[in-house]
Amino acid sequence: MLHLYKFTLGFWVMLASVAAQAGYAFNFPEPVTPIARETLHMHNLVMVVILIMFFVVFGMLIYSFRTHRKGAGYKAATFTGPTNRKQWLWALAPFALLFVIDYGVFGIPAFHAVVLYEDTKTDAELVVKVTGSQWMWQYEFPAEGVSYSSRLITPRDQIDSGAAKGEHYLLEVDNPLVLPVNKKVRFITTSNDVIHSWWVPAFGVKRDAVPGFLREFWATVEKTGTYRGQCSELCGKEHGFMPVVVNVVSQEEFATWLASKKPAPAAANAAVEAAPASKAAVVAKVAQ
Ligand SMILES: [Cu+2]
Q1: 132: CA distance to ligand 1 center in Å?
Q2: Residue 211: which residues within 8 A CB-CB, separation 6 or more?
Q3: How far is the CA of 207 from the centre of ligand 1 (A)?
């Protein structure tokens, strides 16, 4: 018995110290979009309600086991069938309670959070096309004619030979996606080969990138910073090596960055021909 106590104590001490060191690791990352904030709020709400239900139900169970046990001299009831009105109460009360909690307490806020994902009430101020391919992401700003790829830069020896792992092991890329802060962005996702999924936990968004389909969502990032995510749809042997990195910067910094990414006028034709995927850029050029 003593061993069990020691083990349990050790386990909790270990868990507490890990939790203290890891900070947010056991919780959601700090939310930076309205969607992420509502998702976290939903999570906390559901957690609290479920914990209350857990303790009430288990409290009643343990109480019943203790007071109604044979060893304490309790005599079992002998009724059968739905003749007892109280049985109807016991059957219908949990049903009504779950109905109210599921639809009222959980359903309405959850619905609101999902609708935020598809919030088209006002136009997007920026459109970003995200194309997944084995195994990297391509980002395109169709209106601005800017397009580039974003690949993992974690050195191979960190992955293969156990060299000391860097701070952002497997979560670092050569060309991150750059977005302006506080702008409503429409993301369009698609894929060149198999299904990928673009996911940034701090944004609270995750959207499958499906070949042959354009899928979309809307998000407004409210805080500058570097945010990291991953492909979250198993897409082949290097699925774990196509991270997402987003730099959210001020409007001025974004304008400067975008200008530096635009191809020079003379090189524009060659760039468009070299990247047949960016049809929107071709269309934009023809329209000029
Ligand atoms: Cu992928």
Answers
A1: 6
A2: 190, 191, 192, 193, 194, 195
A3: 12
Q: How far is the CA of 228 from the centre of ligand 1 (A)?
A: 15
- Centre of ligand 1 from the C-alpha of residue 194, in Å: 8
Of 134-143, 164-173, 206-215, 260-269, least confident by mean pLDDT is 260-269
Tell how far the Cα of 196 is from the centroid of ligand 1, in angstroms. 4
Angle at 125 between CA 119 and CA 126, to 5 degrees: 100
Distances (CA, A) of 243 to 96, 129, 130, 197, 228: 45, 16, 13, 11, 7
7 pLDDT above the threshold of 70: no
pTM: 0.74
pLDDT of 233 > 90? The answer is yes
pLDDT digits (tens, 9 = 90+) for 185-202: 999 999 999 999 999 999
What spacing in Å lies between the alpha carbon of 59 and ligand 1's midpoint?
46
pLDDT tens digit string along 258-284?
Answer: 999 887 765 555 555 555 444 454 444
- Identify the H or E element spanning 244: strand 244-249
Distance 186 CA to ligand 1 centre (A): 21
Crossing angle (nearest 10°) for helices 34-67 and 108-117 = 150
Question: Please, what is the end-to-end C-alpha distance for the chain in angstroms?
Answer: 81
| Separation of CA 234 and ligand 1 centre (Å) | 6
Q: Specify the pLDDT at position 12.
A: 60
Domains of the chain: 28-66+85-117 (no CATH), 126-263+281-287 (2.60.40.420)
Tokens of 41: 């709020």
Q: Would you give the DSSP letter of residue 190?
A: E
